[in-house]
Amino acid sequence: MEKSYEIEFRALLSEEKYKSLLVFLKAQAEDLGSDDKCVWFFVMPEKLLKVTHNISKRSGKVTLKLTRIGQGSSFEEIEYPISENDIETAVKLFKELGHEYLLEPTILRHNYLYKGVELAVKFSKSWGYHMELEVLTTRKEDQFEAEQLIRSVADELGVKIMTDAELTDFTNNIEENYVHPTEATI
What we know:
The protein is of the alpha+beta class and 186 residues long. The chain contains four helices and nine strands. The protein has a single domain, classed as Hypothetical Protein Pfu-838710-001. It has helices at residues 15-28, 87-96, 143-157, 164-176, and strands at residues 4-12, 30-34, 37-43, 48-54, 59-65, 74-82, 102-114, 117-124, 128-137. A hairpin with a 2-residue loop joins strand 7 (102-114) and strand 8 (117-124). The radius of gyration is 16 Å and the shape is globular. The two termini are 30 Å apart.
């Protein structure tokens, strides 16, 4: 199995910037479509495990990121696709193993490809308006080049990439102040 590395940065957006980016990207980028999700985040000290219900694509997956958000831009991850019917079982499995989770019942997401960078323009209750900028690679050695490409696209779009310290503080705040919403239905 070939390793997959996600080189990823995040940026918080104002509502106005969110709306203007959607207009710009619709006209200038390759539209990869809606990608709305419901995600159960099983937060671990050094890793992040998540079960994702891709509402737009009517599918599911289990993902293990081998580092936490805020620990650099490169994430080695292992993904395992599951059927939409298996999502509830996957969540129950990890709960029974003793893992607590944070549920993000609705992440509105639209994906674009712009100058070789995949952009996910998103809104969720926990994060508000934000975007992910990423390049996927199979070689860790490609990280510096991918980071430079992402930074140049972010500069062109006028978005400020969050630092590791900002990401750590932001996600710690989410985890510390998290209130379980009504359980999502599949």
